[in-house]
Amino acid sequence: MDKTIEKLKSLKSIMPDADFASISRSVILSSVKTVKTKRSFIYDFGMSIGVMATAVTIAVLLGNVRTPSAILAVSNFNTVENEAATIGNDIDVVLQEIGSFDRSAKKTALALNEAAGNGPAHLNESILSAEIEKLDINPSAEQDVETLLNKAIF
Amino acid sequence: MKKTIIFILLLATLITVTPKADASIIESAARNLDSSLNQLITAKDEATAEKTLSPEEDLAFRKKVVNDALILSFKEIEDIKGKLDSLNFEEKSDENKVRGQFFIDLGEFETTYRDLQGRLDKETNVEKIKDIARYAKEYREKAYGPIITEIVDFILAFQTDKLVAGAGIRFGKIETDIKKLERASFIEIGYFDRQMEEAGKLISNAKELVNKAKAMVMENDIDQEEEKGEVKEEEEEIVPPTPRELCEAALIDLRSGYGIFVDISNSVKKIIKI
Questions:
Q1: In terms of domains, do A68 and A57 share one?
Q2: Same domain, A23 and A58
Q3: Which domain holds residue A129?
Q4: A136-152 as b/e, with b when 16 or more CB fall inside 10 Å?
Q5: What whole-number distance in Å separates Cα of residue B210 and Cα of residue B159?
Q6: Exposed, middle or buried by CB within 10 Å (0-12, 13-18, 19+), for A102?
Q7: Total domain count for chain A?
Q8: Do A78 and B24 make contact, defined as CB atoms within 8 angstroms?
Q9: pLDDT higher for A93 or B222?
Q10: Chain B contact for A109 (CB, 8 A cutoff)
């Protein structure tokens, strides 16, 4: 057993013949190189075909590479209509509000005046206005106290 | 294929729901005041020499009118506070300082009206009720009214400014979109130039008007004392437009500008035959 181990240890220093080593290395390297070249070429060729096919398909489908941005532009025009409707509504609200404080100021002044006074009960401005309003077959919703009073005066 | 894609995109944008503004919170309070006023005047009108209005009824009707007038004032204050709050200002800006002062003013009005409401609740003498009504009317006309007008003008100027800014952004986007359509040969180059020029002028004019309105509402609050002495003599004959009138004019221009945008949009649709 010990002898066998001794023999094996001596085998550690075995070196191949220089020519054999050189031939073996070139055989190994050349075989690897050949295989790699073949695979890479097939792979690259396939990929190129794939990319080209995809590009051609997109170009054929859309016809023109500038079209997508034009499509988005057209869809934006519809947003314009929605925005115009919203803004129009906002403008109406703002314009209506401009007058609403004035109207409520007049209304409150008239009401408080009525609560504070002892004016003629049967010749009352508000009574007359209310009766005039009844004469109007199709009264406007926007009709305010001032308009009615003007009607009573003129 | 191209038209199908365009159609799908248009359909998707059409589905977008346009938000609608809420009705003013002041309206219902104003209707209540109308109703209580009607009760009072009808009761007065129905009274005859034989059947007079009882002192209890007279007191109750008058109290209700004054109370509803005060409630309408509270609603106005609440509405104005909400609108002031919704304006976006830099914390250290002059606009924010002015807004802060307005909040103080509104707080004072509210306190005064609460005091009046407290007195009104307890009052059983009809003559005292009439005094409260007289005081409330005078206070509204002399103290509350002028400041409320200032605040409403201030809000209006900055609300209009926001709308004008939005229209300016929209103008830029449309200009870009028209260029895209020109590049894609959907339309001839310069096809919408005249309409865009017109819309551009309207928006610039609106901007100019709103800038004047903003300057006026800020002057009113910051340099009121100094300005008074300077402008009195020269401008006595020419009455300058109020901020309110300037904003109204700006909003009318904006509406026309958006009208042109919609016309352009309709033309685009016709050209690409959707």
A1: no
A2: yes
A3: 120-154
A4: eeeeeeeebbeebbeee
A5: 10
A6: middle
A7: 3
A8: no
A9: A93
A10: yes
* Statement to judge: residues A78 and A110 lie in one domain: yes
Measured N-to-C along each axis, helices A125-135 and A145-153 cross at an angle, to the nearest 10 degrees, of: 90
Name, in order, each residue with C-beta under 8 angstroms of A112's C-beta and a sequence gap of 6 or more.
B65, B66, B69, B133, B134, B136, B137, B140
Burial A27-42 (b: 16+ CB within 10 A, else e): eeeeeeeeeeeeeeee
Confidence band for B228, pLDDT divided at 50, 70 and 90: very low
State whether A16 and A34 are in the same domain: yes
Check whether residue A53 and residue A99 sit in a common domain: no
User: In angstroms, rounded to a whole number, what is the distance separating the alpha carbons of residues B194 and B198?
Assistant: 6
Q: Is the pLDDT of residue B248 over 80?
A: yes
| pLDDT, tens digit, 9 for 90 and up, residues B120-133 | 999 999 999 999 99
Record the tokens describing residue B103, joined without a space: 């909040």
What is the Cα–Cα distance from B221 to B96, expressed in whole angstroms? 12
pTM for the structure as a whole: 0.67
Tens digits of residue pLDDT in B27-72: 888 888 888 888 888 887 777 666 777 888 889 999 999 999 999 9
Q: How far is A133 from chain B (nearest CA, A)?
A: 13
Q: Supply the ipTM of this predicted assembly.
A: 0.72
Q: What's the per-residue H, E or C state across B107-141?
A: HHHHHHHHHHHHHHHHCCCHHHHHHHHHHHHHHHH
In chain A, whose CA is at the least distance from the CA of B257? A84
Are A50 and A23 members of one domain?
A: yes
A24 plus A56 within the same structural domain: yes
| pLDDT tens-digit series, residues B107-116 | 999 999 999 9
Indicate if A128 and A98 belong to the same structural domain.
no
Contact B148 A111 (CB under 8 A): no
Instruction: Please choose, from the candidates B261, B265, B216, the residue with its C-alpha nearest in 3D space to the C-alpha of residue B98.
Output: B216
Chain-chain contact of B130 with A81 (C-beta, under 8 angstroms) = no
Chain A: residue whose CA lies nearest to B176: A73
B247 contacts A75? CB cut-off 8 A: no
Q: Do A104 and B76 touch (CB under 8 A)?
A: yes
Choose among B3, B191, B267: nearest CA to A67: B3
- Rounded Cα distance, B39 and B43, in Å: 6
